[in-house]
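Quick one: co-fold with nicotinamide-adenine-dinucleotide.
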Amino acid sequence: SQRVVLITGCSSGIGLRIAVLLAKDEQKRYHVIATMRDLKKKDKLVQAAGDAFGNTLTLQALDVCSDDSVRQCISRVKDRHIDILINNAGVGLLGPVESISLDQMKMVFETNFFGTVRMIKEIMPDMKRRRAGHIIVMSSVMGMQGVVFNDVYTASKFAIEGFCESLAVQLLKFNVKLSLIEPGPVHTEFEAKMMEEVAKMEFPGADADTVRYFKDVYMPSSIDIFEAMGQTPDDIAKCTKKVIESSNPRFRNLTNSLYTPIVAMKYADETGGLSVHTFYNLLFNFGSLMHITMNILKCLTCSCLRRRTISPD
Ligand code: NAD
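Sure, here it is.
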């Protein structure tokens, strides 16, 4: 029988690609409930799903920030039976902390942290009762390592990692699996949406030096890194499918081997100095951050560090 998969944030990016990949499974092993906040944005998904739409893929409205919306959506699922929950919906936030309001910061936590927690709270009790199920959370490399000018986004992903790390222990007792997917940069609308936001930003409250470091030092390097090292949403979908299909899925799943040294650095020096100073030197002491980063990462990516990733193929 088919496994029921519910995915949040399917109107674009990684969520859309996971929904389509699973719905088009050749053996038709999945029934995908693809959800999105606003069903008016369904066209891209419907088109990509092709024949699967209405068969192995159905659509439902779901806003992870609304109790009512989540409850209504789940109550429409037959017997509330969900085998695999994929928490994908998320928002980014970039810029100097001084110029971001607390309300903007709270919105990021509302979506990335409380949105995921709300979904898990609604669906986990049924999984525990059945002693079966798999919860997937789309985290990020930034769920394990802070990145300059991504302070609040990073904090929201750290928060969900801490939540999941704690929950995973208990869930093991109930035979419910919990896995984090931790991509590096991925080419999606996420990137474009953030660039758009940054172009509109006026940086109230931030001093001229900080604004300059953000706009003229960080931003160009970040764009270069996305270009040089970014994966596709399809890569992340394939990694996620592998995790779902693994008989013994790992808790943490980095998807980009070029990023494993960043994590290794953190574990290599428990004082945190190595990470902070390496990022400082990358940002402020080199002309071309992208070039240097690429080379350092390539040098550091030895086979023992590479083993920790899950690859798309
Ligand atoms: P995206 O912007 O294309 O997709 C995010 C989706 O979440 C969108 O469809 C958006 O409408 C939806 N969403 C936002 N708020 C929502 C809400 N309240 N309720 C329901 N849906 C909501 O970007 P993406 O890159 O596909 O992001 C998907 C996930 O991957 C996010 O959790 C993101 O943090 C994570 N991620 C992205 C990258 C990257 O570089 N793009 C890297 C690592 C992790």
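If it helps, The mean pLDDT is 92.
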